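Quick board copy: two proteins, each given as sequence then tokens.
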Amino acid sequence: MSLLIAMRHATFIVADLARAQAFYESVFDLTPNPSRPQMSFAGVWYDVGDSQIHLMCVPNPEAGLTRPAHGGRDRHVAFSVADMTLLQQRLTALGVNYTVSSSGRTALFCRDPDDNTLELVAVD
């Protein structure tokens, strides 16, 4: 039996919190969780099912690192998506580049404004 039983949150480092919030809120309809305690850095928490996304506005220790062109070849977090067509329409309207998965699944990869990679998988 695995010792891991659930994923609590995924954390993404962002340089501009307002820009990152605009992305996550406009693309995914997320709303900040008001229970985030005061910390020594700016940030936002979003509820995603039983997990959360944490945005942290802190210096990026990997600034200048070259990321792979296809997000599936980079470290990433995968999320289930309720409406892939709507998601693709939003990404296109906002000028967010994405690549479709080559695995045969209905999935795509995109990056947020800070180059954090997201895998988005359609719910069957």
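And the next:
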Amino acid sequence: MIEMIKTLRKNTLFSGGIVMVVGSMSINAINYLYHLVMGRALGPSSYSVLASVFSLYYMIAIIPQSASVSIVKFVSETKDKKDLSILYSSLYKFINILALVLAFFIIFFSPLITKFLHFDSFLLIPLLAPITYFSLGTLLNQSVVQGLLRFKEVVSINLVAALGKLFLGLLFVILGFSAGGAVLGLAIATFITFFYSRRLISVRVNVVSERQILSDFFKFSVPALFQALSFTFIFTADLILVKHFFSGYDAGLYAALSTLGKIIFFASSPIAMVMFPAVSGRRARGESYRKVFYITFFATFLIAGGIVSFYYFFPEFAIRVLYGSSYLAASTYLFWMGGFIAIYTLNYFLVNFLLSVGKVKVVTVPLLSSVLQIIAISLWHESLLVVIQISLAIMIFMMILLVLYLASYQLKVYGKK
């Protein structure tokens, strides 16, 4: 028994998985504490404003998120420190330019976005510009340490971001700055997290970059971009549309439901984060990765199913304890939201697995699903339940397509070893 424990501790997948799951769950608990505190402090209407800003932030972060997947893959396949230095330098220069461009577009389109979402303050959207700029740099550094399987550092970066966002945001809200104060706290926390993450990267930036690296990087990043684009829109477009079509109170209820549903995703996603570099690295070395897939998928299923079951039996308890009695009207929809996010989580895992083994064409499946979701909700939004059921139905449709995709390519996907 002792020898088995020692063997497991030496296993990178097992030890890394434990660090990522435990660490990420702790960080997600802090993140949810943030939303619960803000939900109670701001009330449904003001909280819907904050939730909408976060949804916009997630959408803006699509490009860095897609780049993150690619960075993890390329870093996990580097052979030595020289290759890593060249890769990092090439990406650092590119991402810095990209960050500046995105920040400019956010400021340019901020008046239009502010009007669409019916915000009273015109400063909320411009604050997303510095948040986006420093977030891209942080994601580069975090992706590098993840690709190197340094999972403790990955957790520490997220911990700094979560604690900074919580304490600074709460401070500004207490001082009377409402939702704008929470966004300002996020901006300052993002700035601090960037400089912390940079200190963890012992790589020189002045190494001459290579165009071939960027060329290969873009070939993989384009499909990864569509993957991130699709899943982020599925994750956030519903909330944005609800904020536009429904009252502030109903949008606040939906924001609470969405946040509770996302517990499922954030509790399970660390497993996919461990799986991706492990499978990609093994495939690059010609090793078998079948067991990695089975173990990580089953673990994801258990976590998602367990939380959905809890929402089915104790919806009012979950709402009352986490958000308070003012949000109890949303309890009848919690199980439906849980089902939507649970299947979303499994779909996310399957697509990331297929990307890790080079099956980039699979991104057409979530892309199609995200477009269908936006169209369907725009046409039919009689109630919050209808919106959730539309998203659930599309996720079921998406899973059917992914299972068919896996079945048709199973010999290549699972390998013959």
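Board note added afterward: The longest helix spans residues 12-60.
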